[in-house]
Amino acid sequence: MTNNDIQQVKQRFGIIGNNADLNRAIDVALQVAPTDLSVLITGESGVGKEVFPQIIHQNSPRKHAQYIAVNCGAIPEGTIDSELFGHEKGSFTDAKELRKGYFEVADDGTIFLDEVGELPLFTQVRLLRVLESGEFMKVGSSKVQKTNVRIVAATNVNLVEAVSQHKFREDLYYRLNTVPIRIPPLRERQEDVLLLFRKFASDCADKYRMPAIHLDDDARQLLVSYRWPGNVRELKNIVERISVIEENREITAGVLKMHLPNISMEKLPVLAQRHHDGSKIFNSEREILYQVLFDMKKDVNDLKKLVHDIMNDNARIEPIDDGVYTQTPAHQSSIRHTSIQDAETVEETLSLEDVEKEMIRKALERHGGRRKNAAGDLQISERTLYRKIKEYDLE
Question: Coil, helix or strand for 92?
Fold first, then answer.
């Protein structure tokens, strides 16, 4: 595809940036669009994966047929088969009438399966059959139906690792990954950060009828050097927040830091990631919680060591006046001993559930109750977050 073709797609779908990897992703999407090959889009949460299936569909022979986007992570396991493949009347308790699934409705069109890594294993078997033969059966039916659907899938999960852990079928992975498209994270698109900032600032100014914010030199440098764990979505949210809250339209580095809470938390395990540059990434909520507990345990041990050192220093015989020496009073030693016991008690009473509940509560507060953003922050699926919110009564 020519550079002009890529620029036209950017303009049509509102894609901002000139990064080479981003252009390559658009180019691959345009080349594969006229075919029926399955496409697997990978990238971190917030990079804009949802735009690429639309590019593929709108540039394909199927563009006049149905396009359906399905968030696999937001549908409960008990109903996802019914959503995708439909069900017969009476096939389960709430099945009061016949229902068509997405694969039947989108016949001759395109289905975008977002967060495909969250699909249950038994649903993966059904999906594999559709990919191999175009056949499926409604829940509660023995009648085989045919569908002609183009499948585009996306995930922020490492599917190769999920396959090795038997959480994702290997044969399904290879079927979906016929044509891979990787969307680069914002930290790899430093040349695009200021372009995106200006676009979001201008959009916000038009929407709320106010002057657009702009950055001084130090703030621009800070914006570009920030790692953006939430990627483009996080940048957009921060620009909108600053535009509305700050009265001064020139934003300094000091003001910008106030709106980048993660800048002082980049070493916390929830935000840390492990990539080729040595940073950490977690593949499950349990790994995150274990890391949190490990770090909290280390902090408690450091506190115990500090109290112990102070106790030893103060317990030494020290001169007072005129060559008279004394020892630390016994009751002070007792107080220090109690402090150590208290620290040990704090360590022993820490529970995985308490830490998990607090992490979820804080993530929801940071994102103003927006569950999708909070799930991305915690590196877990929306479905898992919904379940945890209900479990811990955090509605």
Answer: coil
At position 307, the amino acid (one-letter code) is V
Cross-strand partners of 146 = 135
pTM of the model: 0.66
SS3 45: coil
How far are the Cα atoms of 38, 77, 160, 175 from residue 172, in angstroms, in the given order?
11, 18, 11, 5
pLDDT higher than 90, residue 68: yes
Percentage of the chain lying above the pLDDT 90 cut:
60
381: tokens are 């699926």
Does pLDDT of 127 surpass 60? yes
- What b-and-e string marks burial along 299-333, b requiring 16 or more CB atoms within 10 Å of the CB? ebeebbeebeeebeeeeeeeeeeeeeeeebeeeee
Strand (E) or helix (H) holding 67: strand 67-71
Tokens (6 digits) for 191: 């040349």
> What is the C-alpha to C-alpha distance for residues 56 and 330, in angstroms, rounded to an integer?
77
What is the per-residue pLDDT across 142-165, written as a single tens digit (0 to 9) for each? 999 999 999 999 999 999 999 999
The Cα 86–Cα 108 span in angstroms is: 17
Give percent helix, percent strand, percent coil of the chain, each to the nearest 5: 55, 10, 35
In tens, the pLDDT along 292-328 reads 555 665 666 666 666 666 666 555 444 444 444 444 4
Distances (CA, A) of 127 to 69, 80, 138, 168, 177: 15, 11, 12, 12, 14
